[in-house]
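Attaching the record inline, Q. Sequence:
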Amino acid sequence: MKKLLSTSLISLSLILSACSSDDEVIGSTEEYFYNEAVEAMENNDWQLAISIFQQLEAQFPFGQYAAQAQIELVYAYYQDGEAELARAAADRFIRLYPDDDNIDYAYYMKGLAFYTEDASFLGRWLPTDPSKRDPGNARESFADFSQLITRFPNSPYAADARARMIYLRNLLASYEIHVAEFYIERQAYLSALNRARYVVENYQEAPAVPRALEIMTEMYLRLGLDDLANNSLDILKSNFPDSGQLDENGNFIVNTQITDPSVLYTMTFGVLGSNRRDTPLAPTRRPDNNEGAFSFEIPQEQRDRSLLNILTLGMLGDPGTRNPMDEIEAELEDEVEAVEN
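Structure, as predicted:
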């Protein structure tokens, strides 16, 4: 009610001032309303400040405070949590006042609006991973900050924009890795490869680059492209020798299983069933030009687990897996025994 009453009084004052033909009164009225809006901002009354600035702009679109009121409106929207309106106001300021001294600030606020838009209540108090959310706003913010430092490299806001761009770059790279791993779980190897390669090509200094190279190497192997796998492996070993997919001898360790939770595993919260499934590898040989570079594990064949094995949590019964090499060795022993007999 207090805000509504204040807004009504301001509107009434504007109507009365509009009826006056005295230029001096009109000029002082514009200054009065601007000062009132600034005072509201100082009191953190952002909605009241927005209302006053909007009425000031409507009443004096070409006044001496028009440009300043417009840029102040951007900040008021930002503080009020209205990211879309803040960006729209910044765009309008850039379009109307391209030569204004505050034009770099408009670009900065435009990027900052989307930079902090995802800072929700849950995000402040719960350990959420922002790299797993939609990166649309992060890309927009990154582009806005990039435009700022390109057009105004000496701006006082350029240093802060660069720091925020580094964070956004790492965030976007991590998002691409999450998507790549999602594709791996669904055996969409080409899609996973493209996502990982995009990280290497566009976010070269991001912490996600080693993981991207690991994915590229493994996806090339799964697709049977040994030469390209060797190239990715060489880059990985040269730049990131501590990679988790390199053993102590520098050999690349290929993952032979993917996460694939069964219905039983999901319903029992992991107590019963399995969340792993063997996946075949595309290559049937080691790369000729880099002998010994890759180490393969022979996957065990998956069969249905017996009921006894499920009920005893894997202690008894048929676990549903078997090693093909065991059967081959058994067959060879039978043949040798038959020959000897």
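The beta strands are 252-253, 257-259, 276-278, 294-295, 301-302, 321-322. The CA atoms of residues 223 and 282 lie 6 Å apart.

More tomorrow.
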